[in-house]
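Q: What does the assembled structure look like for these inputs?
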Amino acid sequence: MSAPNGIRSYRLRVWRQPGPTAPGRLVDYTVSGVDPGVSFLEMLDRLNEDLVRKGEDPIAFDSDCREGICGTCGAAVDGRPHGPQPNTTICTLRMREFPDGVTITVEPFRAKAFPIIKDLVVDRSAFDRVISRGGYISVNVGSAPEANLVPIPKDIAEAAMDTAACIGCGGCVASCPNASAALFVGAKVRQMRLLPQGDAERARRVLSMVEQMDKEGFGDCSNHGECEAACPKAISIESIATLRREFLRAALKG
Amino acid sequence: MTLTSHVPSGPLDTAWDRHKSELKLVNPANKRKYTVIVVGTGLAGASAAASLGELGYNVVNLCIHDSPRRAHSVAAQGGINAAKNYQNDGDSIQRLFYDTIKGGDFRAREANVYRLAQLSVSIIDQCVAQGVPFAREYGGMLSNRSFGGAQVSRTFYARGQTGQQLLLGAYGSLMRQVDAGTIRLLPQREMLDLVVVDGRARGIVCRNLVTGALERYAGDAVVLCTGGYSTVYFLSTNAVNSNATAVWRCYKRGALFANPCFTQIHPTCIPVQGEEQSKLTLMSESLRNDGRVWVPKSSDDRRAPKDIPESDRDYFLERIYPAFGNLVPRDVASRAAKMVCDEGRGVGTTRLAVYLDFADAIQRLGEDVIRERYGNLFQMYEEITAEDPYHAPMRIYPAPHYSMGGLWVDYNLMSTIPGLHVLGEANFSDHGANRLGASALMQGLADGYFVIPYTIGHYLGSGGFGAVSTDHQAFRDAEHAVEENVRRLLAIRGKRTIREFHWQLGRLLWDRVGMARKADGLRDAIDKIRALREEFWQDVRVPGHGQEFNKSLEMAGRVADYFELGELMCRDALEREESCGCHLRDEHRTPEGDPKRDDENYAFVAAWEYAGNDTAPRLHKEPLTFSNIQLATRSYK
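A:
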């Protein structure tokens, strides 16, 4: 074990795949001189700088805000979406979590509904299509009433915020043995169910979102609970219970 | 070129209403015949695209992200201002207007700011109706907190994720219009040129970031909502993909660039820790509601913060600015932090940090209350620094955050190129020389939900221009220029990485056109930037090829533009022989060392016109006149 501030080295096994239809494989790299305070993605930046200097192709991975809120980044680290630390995205995961000298395997999020674009980058536009089918309240600009007209109890507002915190990263799908999007869809359905403003479209919303979710090729939920454990925003599987209840209610009412 | 702001004459408080009643309209059945290209899906872009779609326009909406929900507005933490006066503490439209004008050190256009304050109240109504889960009181009513530069509580918030929640609200409205077929959504597209036909903005050329293919889109108007340019400094609070390319290419096509040197350095960021760092993380200004900023009184004091008694601490913001205390505006707080660090009183290993201490607030309110207010921010701080801010003070330091400067627009948010409208952070209009906290979200949404739906109708309704196809020579020329630029970048095959160049440029800009500027430093910086730009075009290594997903190529194009933008920032800073807001010229200080504004000679917007890569740009001035307020020395003491 090295000193806490000691510079570290790692052996990385990274999924390389040149394009959507090309075959992929795990390739071994060594990265050294890593400060334990840097993020996992900064460690990959460093490796990429080395690769470019050597004339090799850098590893393609996506990221943007690098503070855990935009949901752009995402890869499986040793098989776990966003890596070993709970409630953390891979961009805020620090290398101090990894002892010096270990081997780390990095793979893209794997799901039928998330086709690979290149290396660690996947296409998650399926999520946008699900949201487009009802993940909102239909209110045109100009027709909103005074904001304080409808009181919302503090605990209800807080519970809605708990599920609204979803960043749409897809970690839940990647962690699920069935590649189900139930947590993602449930979080949005639950937010809208909790708020009085969402009531008018209650049945229509859940039916069309679930229909689109199935169309995109996401699997069914079979209560593994892996999604909740992988979620960087600690969204509870209570959302899935809400999704089921709302779906059943809407389906029975026809 | 004369800059006409199109601000209506007459009283300020009825200006927007009168203006709206005079704007031309487009018949509902005719709206779908007009195509509007909206670039960007942050708060300004998503709200503009959604609103225009709702009205029935045919909207093409592009973004560089894989989903519109990821635009960098998502990272805004603290809140959004609105003059609701729910707290009964004396707020009003006039007061929000005045605070914003004063906060910007009297360098913003009065009529735009007044309109912004008026529209602020409707924004909150709209967002609540969309299901944005704002913080609430036990009685179910909306809650507020305080932000810098104001003595009232008018900031609405959703924990430390206000930007995310407002963006998801706008994104939901956008996706609803995608479903309704009024918006054609094109993610993973980077705008690389503006197409101007017969003097009007008629389309864009962009690169499909997945396939690498260049694509052309034609329309009747272009609405640019591509955010700010603080990434020019390399280390900033902006996302790694935030960039200046779209605004820069518009500038090179004839849109004037206003006040490029007005860049906000945010006082409360986690300090730089090492050279490997890819970006800096902001700690919301809302923390200054309860956190107290201090350093040791003596520069020799190397004790741990908990061992330094009250008598040996200098709560310098409270000491210098007793009226506003820790809630002074950002430029003032940043400058004060720099000053105490320059005196050698900075803390931490680099000594480029000050303490932000919650001990008093925790003792007064309890840890649970502080956790409820700022839990996610404290968690973020701990993740990055491995220190627990509940038990030891945070260490913070200023970092580049926001650009008040941007493309020049008139009262209708139209640039100097007819048809090219610019919204949100990408324009220059509302924040003068310093933006107050919680005002960026307000401006993005005001522009998108409540201004552009009216003003674009006026432009389109004025008519007089026919259909344009993407086969037009102007499209072919623009695409050829983009293609040539990509080819050149890939052909260099030099030895140094893109990051090395960007880092070097960023350091130079931070030193010379950051928190303090002076003439010789700026002149020298211009020479150095030019030399570095030359080296870049000879020695940069851009791996891969153009016809693929290629992050390096994307970044190379952006960095190439940063050299040119950086030079313009220095020129603008050199030209402005005064200190105002974020722009502190060492030569222009009062005898006490405070910034000294020069209203007689510099009460204008500096708008720069491109004149060629190696020719100095031309300066145009829009005089700033104030009818509603008295120009005064800004004081927070």
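Chain A has eight helices and seven strands.
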